[in-house]
Structure formats: C-alpha cells, structure tokens
Amino acid sequence: MKVAVLDIKGKETGRKVDLSDAVFAIEPNDHAVYLDVKQYLAHQRQGTHKAKERGEIAGSTRKIKKQKGTGTARAGSIKSPVFRGGGRIFGPRPKDYSQKLNKNVKRLARKSALAMKSKEQAITVLEDFNFETPKTKDFIQILKSLGLENKKSLIVLGDSNNSVYLASRNFKRSEVITNSEISTYKILNANNIVLLEGSLEGLESNLTK
Fold first, then answer.
1. pTM for this model (two decimals)
2. Cα(203)–Cα(186) distance, integer angstroms
C-alpha cells in the first residue's frame, strides 16, 4: 500500500512509502483487540484498595452488654460490623489485576488496530523532524498544518527524541511515543496516527516477527 510522505507544512514531498500489507491491510481480529485493550486497562489499576475488617481496627474487645435480657440482639465487641465505627464486612482487599496475554495475540491486536485506522484513512506518514529548541507552539503549528490541532493524535517516532517530546507534553490532545511503545489501546484511543518515516521499519519489524 503506497502512502505519500508529507513534510511538516502538510505538503507532499513527492516521495511515497510502501506500508506493509501484513500489518496495515489485514482483516482485523476484533476479539484479539478486545483482549489486548482489556489487559492494558487492567494493568492501569493499582489494586491498592483496602478496608479494615473487625480484627484490624482499634477498639475494645470487651463484651458491651449482657447476653440475655436486654430485648435486643446479642452483641460482643464494639468492633462488630453492625456498629458504627466497626469493621467492614467483606471489604475490598489489595489485588493484582494484571492479566497474561500471548505475544502473538498482542501482535495480532496491534496489527488489527492499525488496519482499522488504515481503512478509516486515519494514518499519516510524516518526514522525520526535530526542534532546535522545544516549543509547544512549534509543535502545534505542525499539527495545524496536518489539520490535527483539534483531534486526538498519536505521533510515533523511530527513536526517542527529547526535543519533540518536550515540545508536545503540554498539548493534551496529542501523545508522542516511539514505535516500541505503541499499544492497541493508544492506537484506538487516537483519532489520527502520525507515523514518522523513521518509525516504519522498526514498527513493521516488531509486528511481523
């Protein structure tokens, strides 16, 4: 699949790159995408929720009233869950929400997500660029040239570029990552994917192993 390479002003450079059909033109597998997104979101959960049960709160353990003759239910410690300030019954405990997923399924999911964006014509190939001084306004100007200033965009670099990252981090509608950091969730969460020319080889290599 041939795609024109644009410059930072949004104009065609006259060059075209060949996007691999094995990555960008496959039949998307919806279930693989679901599993990968589910795993990604599960890994965002800290799982540190905790409520104290009756054995963990501070309080007296003496029997607060006699067993019989009061006309009310029997009661032991003031730490009983039925009293205000008592322990919580079956409260949340720390839990590891992480899930395992086969590497081949994750690759299939990422290829499927890219193929979906390709069908939507939401993938742009941009020539490699750099900033002498990282400034947010320069980064936004590039997005304006591409017509993406009001859309959520994902910019994929070949290698880490500190100046591009620093210029972009104050702009909330855009995220800059390297090709090794790409994920199914990030692809689907963006309206448009901007692939820098230098990221294509590594991206396709990682997804077709």
1. 0.84
2. 14
